């Protein structure tokens, strides 16, 4: 993602990239997006490569990569470091699998609690509330 000159103002750039202006500025502060030079008396301009870079960042975020991991991937953007990129992705995949396992456990416990609520009879306290109060 080169440094060819562009003709987009920051507002047009943000719109083209599908983000807001504050996101652009945030990415610049985090080092994910270079800030173009400001011509004397002019305004900064952005190009298609900048739009592509922001879209890359957003796509990586949707896959759960942290901003630090995204910065690492951007440093590998020439495509010749596939094994390093794969290591970063493998770490993310392991984290996703851990979260999925946690969610499956949560689902099972919640399903059991909801089931107990549906079978309760009479004036007994809510099994869900009782379970949560007991820390189970």
Describe the structure.
The chain has 6 helices and no strands. Helix 1 crosses helix 3 (48-62). It has 136 residues and is an all-alpha fold. The mean pLDDT is 90. The radius of gyration is 24 Å and the shape is elongated. It has 2 domains: 1-77, Orthogonal Bundle (Multidrug-efflux Transporter Regulator, Chain: A, Domain 2); 81-136.
* Helix-strand string: HHHHHH
CATH first level of the largest domain: Mainly Alpha
Share of helix, binned: 55-70%
- How many discrete structural domains? 2
- How many runs of DSSP E, i.e. beta strands? 0
Q: Indicate the overall shape.
A: elongated
Question: How does the helix and strand content classify structurally?
Answer: mainly alpha
For this structure, the CATH topology of the largest domain is Multidrug-efflux Transporter Regulator, Chain: A, Domain 2
What percent of residues are in strands?
under 5%
**CATH architectural arrangement of the largest domain:** Orthogonal Bundle
| Terminal Cα span | 52 Å
User: Radius of gyration over alpha carbons?
Assistant: 24 Å
Q: Tell me about the biggest sheet?
A: none
Summarize model confidence as the mean pLDDT. 90
Detail the poorly predicted runs: none
User: What's the number of helices?
Assistant: 6
